[in-house]
Design a protein that fits this description.
heterotrimer; A mainly alpha (about 325); B mainly alpha (about 290); C alpha/beta (about 240); B: mainly alpha; two-stranded antiparallel sheet; about 75% helix; C: about 240 residues; alpha/beta; Rossmann fold; 6-stranded mixed β-sheet; 9 helices; 10 strands
């Protein structure tokens, strides 16, 4: 890592941590949403960016985390922390039960399967009485945005540290090997099935924790919003735009895209959807390897970088 | 027993329609290896085109199918030539992403232009039913199902027995060899995608006569098209017919025996099951 | 001395087609065994059966006194079976060093849990095969002959006891072939038993202690290089190929 990076990150981190003291209420709320999205993007980064299995259904983990907190607090009168643990347990169980069969699928089949699973979960949960069925659950209110903000920030730091650990650990190298060449990884002794499922579960853990925070913060959840499929769009595009398979890429991606989307929303209502869609299309054509790659190569290639990307990928 | 028979007939009628719903996706996937996550959104567009043709030009939806199809073909050609051709050789994930993005854009624009209310296409005969053997068959459903199967068979014939169809299949199998025979891949890819969207448009027109349309039907239709394509296999349009019928029957039976809210769960559940157990599809080999 | 690797009546069918049929052989510790045979004879399939990439339809594989044909490929790698691929399988986005480090991290036994130490072992392996100068290059930037060396280094980093080499000399010129022969000899000298699949008959004859010949999935000869190469059945199998 270049020497100026660590101090810069530290400064940014401190600035972020202190935001609840100098920022407006709207800013804090925007901050919480963005931080949670960044956590989702980092979680996706683990299974999609580092392991090379693009999941289009991590929203399931998010929803499970949300409902974990919801059910624990509303139906069983348990504290928030227990609810979070419950949500994580649900996510991990899901990752193992369904991950094992689904992770045997390659590439786009895996993507489709996770997409289908995401659709199923929403429909199933809306039929479960314990989860309040279609009506949803209302959690005990807690008006402490500051706490939620710091909680989300801590979660993001934890997720990012985990990703950093991946880049220098045996486990992480195994995941990268799987991404680069799964067959090659197998003959070199990597237990690919176990590693893929663990990566999936790890992504699930962070997504579930984010969902849990969201549930308590908003104090309301229903199947539609908890298992919101568009979350998948957002987390993937944020991770991919910033740079999949990098430590800071998803964070940068989510911050930038959230900020622009927020700015646009204040000008033109609910244009966020259109904006993300266009960003995806343009980014995939011009910068398929994300912002991190652009930053790395732009100063050498200049605008030719984008042209080259098109030239290598077109027919 | 009567109820079961009715449900089965409903399932078959819906299944036939499903064949054409999935056909465009299967074609583009099998031939161009493009997994089009925006397929359903284009079906939705086709439905709206048919609706407006009916409103403004008083075109019967069945008669107006060619118009819808041609318009969608042009859109498809433009999209492939202008956008998708640029990423054809990049990893499959990029195709998924970019079509994901297209879906979002199209849905959003549709919501903007058409507003979110539900509509149906109601030609004069839309309330009429045929009753036979204790079973009620709405005329439009029957017509839609028949038309869907006819179109699918026509596509099958086209791919196997016409020059253009064979050129498309040849390009799918071996791009370099096809080039040597004078095939211009950019044009051919665009034609194929245009065909895929034309089929989606036709599906939309038919869909609009039997179900309500709104800007958000795209995602579910895409998911069902996947289920049908994977269940039936991508080898031949006939597989899509089988896949459609199977899905239609599963949904109808699930609605009857478990509950209507579970119909979608059943379709996606079958999709996941088939993927896990036999990714090559129940009938054939997938791309 | 008991064999370190043994195949007993190995058979592999692909939808009715017999790719490998009733093949039995054994590899002694410290031996270099050459596999030759015309294209499509089933050599790579046989290697895949040994490494665990493919399960056998019939027959058994024994490694160091243990039966392993039901064992997953990654477990066989951890037992000490390393292989190179005919169609090379590098990790394209990783540096040459990290490519080999994966082998050190996951290879025999528990592998090396510490990344820094794994990278050191990787460096040694790269020196051993002659790629010392290329450690920081991206694997995908390597040229053909260097890629072959990388394949070898990756397998060596696993500290295998048996190394299965699938056509490491294909596409190399005479000088490069001699270099590879040297490397394989050095590998054997460290105590690793080697199976070498090759088409370059002259090289195989120089290198191998024993040669086995496959034709249409069946073993048609097995013995000292000179006697095998002058066996009329072998010559007939290669009819049309260069006689050495």
């Amino acid at each position: 890592m270049k020497t100026w990076r660590l101090p810069l990150i530290a400064v940014v981190l401190v600035a972020l941590a202190l935001l609840p003291w100098y920022g407006s209420d709207t800013m804090i709320q925007f901050g919480i949403s963005t931080l949670l999205l960044a956590v989702l993007a980092q979680g996706w980064n683990i299974i999609g960016g580092y392991t090379g299995y693009p999941s289009f259904g991590n929203s399931v983990f998010y929803g499970l985390g949300a409902y974990g907190v919801g059910i624990a607090m509303v139906q069983w009168q348990l504290p928030f922390a227990v609810g979070m643990v419950f949500g994580v347990v649900l996510a991990v169980v899901f990752a193992f039960l369904l991950g094992i069969p689904v992770l045997r699928l390659k590439g786009h089949y895996f993507a489709i399967a996770t997409l289908a699973l995401a659709q199923i979960m929403a429909a199933i949960v809306s039929n479960v009485p314990l989860a309040g069925q279609n009506i949803g659950l209302v959690l005990p209110p807690l008006n402490n945005d500051r706490m939620f903000y710091e909680l989300a920030l801590v979660l993001l730091v934890a997720a990012t540290l985990t990703v950093w650990w991946l880049t220098r650990s045996r486990f992480g190298f195994g995941l990268i090997a799987i991404r680069e060449n799964e067959e090659g990884a197998v003959v070199m002794g990597v237990d690919t099935t176990r590693y893929k499922v663990l990566a999936f579960a790890l992504a699930g853990v962070f997504s579930a924790l984010a969902g849990g925070i969201q549930a308590y913060w908003i104090t309301f959840l229903d199947p539609g919003s908890a298992f919101d499929i568009t979350l998948n769009v957002k987390m993937i595009i944020m991770a991919v735009f910033g740079g999949p398979g990098t430590i800071l890429g998803p964070i940068v991606g989510s911050f930038i895209l959230s900020a622009i989307s927020e700015l646009l929303s204040s000008e033109v209502t609910s244009i966020a959807g259109l904006f993300f869609g266009i960003v995806i299309v343009v980014a995939v054509v011009l910068m398929p390897r994300g912002l991190a790659d652009v930053v790395r190569r732009f100063h050498r290639l200049g605008w030719r970088y984008f042209v080259d990307n098109i030239r290598t990928n077109r027919i | 027993m009567d109820l079961l028979l009715q449900v089965l007939i409903n399932g078959i009628l819906q299944g036939g329609l499903y064949a054409i719903v999935a056909l465009g996706l299967a074609l583009v996937w099998g031939v161009l290896n493009i997994v089009n996550l925006s397929h359903g959104a284009f079906i939705m567009l086709g439905a709206y085109i048919s609706w407006y043709s009916f409103q403004w030009l008083h075109l019967d939806p069945f008669v107006g199918l060619p118009l819808t199809a041609v318009l969608m073909f042009i859109v498809g050609y433009a999209v492939q030539r202008g956008i998708l051709n640029l990423i054809v050789r990049s990893p499959m994930f990029n195709t998924l992403l970019i079509t994901f993005g297209l879906e979002v854009v199209i849905t959003y624009l549709a919501q903007l232009v058409f507003s979110a209310d539900f509509r149906t296409i109601n030609p004069s005969y839309s309330g009429h039913n045929i009753t036979a053997l204790g079973v009620t068959i709405p005329v439009v459903r029957l017509a839609a199902c028949v038309m869907a199967i006819v179109l699918t068979l026509a596509m099958w014939y086209f791919l196997l027995h016409t020059r253009l169809g064979r050129a498309i299949r040849a390009t799918a199998q071996n791009l370099s060899a096809a080039r040597l025979y004078g095939v211009e891949p950019r044009h051919l890819y665009a034609v194929t995608f245009g065909l895929g969207l034309a089929l989606a448009g036709a599906a939309g027109g038919l869909y609009g006569t039997v179900s309500q349309i709104n800007p958000y039907i795209g995602a579910t239709l895409t998911a069902k098209s996947f289920a049908i394509s994977i269940i039936g296999g991508l080898d031949t349009p006939l597989g899509v017919i089988a896949g459609g019928l199977i899905l239609g029957l599963i949904e109808a039976l699930t609605a009857l025996y478990i509950g209507p809210t579970f119909a979608d769960v059943a379709s996606f559940g079958v999709l996941v099951l088939v993927l896990i157990v036999r990714p090559t599809g129940l009938l054939g080999r997938t791309a | 001395m008991s064999p370190i690797l043994e195949a007993r009546q190995l058979t592999r069918r692909f939808s009715g087609l017999l790719a490998v049929h009733d093949v039995s052989f054994s590899l002694s510790p410290g031996e270099i065994l050459g596999f030759i045979g015309p294209n499509g004879a089933g050599k790579t399939t046989l290697i895949s059966l040994l490494s665990g990439t493919l399960p056998p339809s019939e027959g058994e594989v024994w490694f160091d006194g243990r039966r392993i044909d039901r064992m997953a490929a990654f477990r066989r790698a951890r037992l000490g079976i390393g292989r190179t691929f005919q169609i090379m399988q590098p990790f394209p986005g990783l540096s040459v060093l990290d490519n080999v480090a994966v082998g050190a991290l996951f290879g025999r036994g528990q592998g090396q849990p510490k990344l820094a130490l794994a990278r050191e072992s990787a460096r040694e392996c790269l020196q051993f095969v002659g790629l010392g100068k290329h450690v920081d290059q991206r694997a995908e930037d390597l040229g053909g002959p260097d890629r072959k060396r990388l394949e070898l280094a990756k397998a060596l980093a696993m500290q295998p006891r048996v190394l299965l080499c699938d056509e490491v000399m294909a596409g190399l010129n005479l000088v490069e072939i001699d270099e590879v022969i040297d490397v394989i000899r050095k590998v054997r000298d460290t105590g690793i038993s080697v199976i070498v699949i090759e088409h370059v008959i002259k090289a195989i004859r120089n290198l191998s202690d024993r040669i086995m010949v496959l034709h249409h999935g069946e073993k048609i000869a097995d013995g000292a290089p000179d006697s095998v190469l002058s066996d009329p059945r072998v010559v007939e199998a290669y009819l049309g190929k260069k006689r050495t």
